[in-house]
Amino acid sequence: MPRKSATKTREPAITSEKLDALDLHRVMSMLPIMPYHTVADLACGRGFFTLALAKYVFDGKVYALDADKDALDATKAELDKIRLSNVETVLSKTQKLALNDDSVDGVLVPFIMSGGEDPAKLSKEAHRVLHKGGWMAVLEWEARETPDGPEMGKRVSDADARKAAEKAGFRFTARYHLSDDQYMLLMRK
Known about the structure:
Blueprint: H1 16-21, H2 24-30, E1 38-41, H3 48-56, E2 61-66, H4 69-81, E3 87-91, E4 104-110, H5 119-129, E5 130-141, H6 158-167, E6 171-177, E7 182-188
Parallel strand pairs: 1-2, 1-4, 2-3, 4-5
Antiparallel strand pairs: 5-7, 6-7
């Protein structure tokens, strides 16, 4: 089997059609987010969560991070359309986030563990950039066969995601059932 190129971007774990089926308002209501928070949207893609976060933290800031410049450009275009100015797009790998230590109140980790990112490394990086008491929300696919989502071998169970986060220093707060196919874990630093 040929090796994958180290410069190849990760494949998306969730498509725009599947995001549209996700109840974004419900997800936002579950986050311990305040209008003045500074939050990071990891692997923001085309800005689906970034736009919602930016509207909610109208007195705060959102860092939209992604390793794909085209995705960041698409996010910027969407932000310009609706005139949101509290977002900074950042070209960044998830293995080493381009954010300072102790610099954000919250980190959203949407469907990127099942996209191939190491849960332990990702949790450690999220812990590094969070303020004490900050939150991390992990959205992922259930680790069982479902009509949608990535293949079984790529899915990360809630138990494995929780274990990786706790090993990085997080405290478990809650597990939410987003749909028959998806869950969200909420953790605190």
